[in-house]
Amino acid sequence: MPVSTLKEVVDRAFAERYGVxxxxxxxxxxxxxxLAGAVEARSPVIVQTSVKTVKALGSNVLAxxxxxxxxxIEVPVVLHLDHCPDRAVITECLDRGxxxxxxxxSVLPVEENQRQTIEVVREARxxxxxxxxxxxxxxxxxDGIGSDTESARQNLDVALRxxxxxxxxxxxxxxxxxxxxxxxEPVLDFQRVSDIVDEHxxxxxxxxxxxxxxxxxxxxxxRGCAKVNxxxxxxxxxxxxxxxxLEEAEAKDRWDPPALFAHVHTDVAALTRDLARQxxxxxxx
Length: 285
Description:
This protein is α/β, with parallel strands linked by helices. The protein contains 11 helices and 10 strands.
């Protein structure tokens, strides 16, 4: 099965009301493990890279990894650039083969955000790629982008005008969600998702998914959240899995890097399978 487009993946999820895991990877091991977990779950998956990861590993290296690891892949997969405020990085990634981008101009006035998003959509279309847009910053700092100060939410008319005039394929509203680890169960504005979808049926991206409850996920997915972002949970799994293995290795004085890689791979693949089941995308490939 060839690499799919964002629109193909999320439009079906939106129509059938399940969520597709959109997981931020950090290196080759996590990319391979996320893809393996999706294949095991027979689930579509959106592999996401932050701007920080793109700059750390290089777009050429990431693109080569992606091409190699998805050759002959058996499930629909998408390569997405997450939360990117830098137009030059968007252009670089589109040129290298990313087929989905989130242009994050949420710190700009809505009018300027909208003007530039229209340009990004036009650029993405020339590459056969799709665009996620947002008009409010999601609370929390993720990979160096964002703010811990919650931004003001725009009214429904502003959100609808942005969606209609930019032509974005996915929309990410602020609903009380946040990046990072929730200290308490988040209080979410479920109705805002329904209000947007009722007026303009468009797949919604749910950011800040790590730490939400199953009931919250299920409710939001039923309302139209077809793309469910997971970043913090991947990082925690990756680092805790590594730590547990290294502590045991130290205790036994046995140092075997390939065994460490296999251990972490198993845990990240299991996380991906569990997310697919949780969001209802398992078996949808």
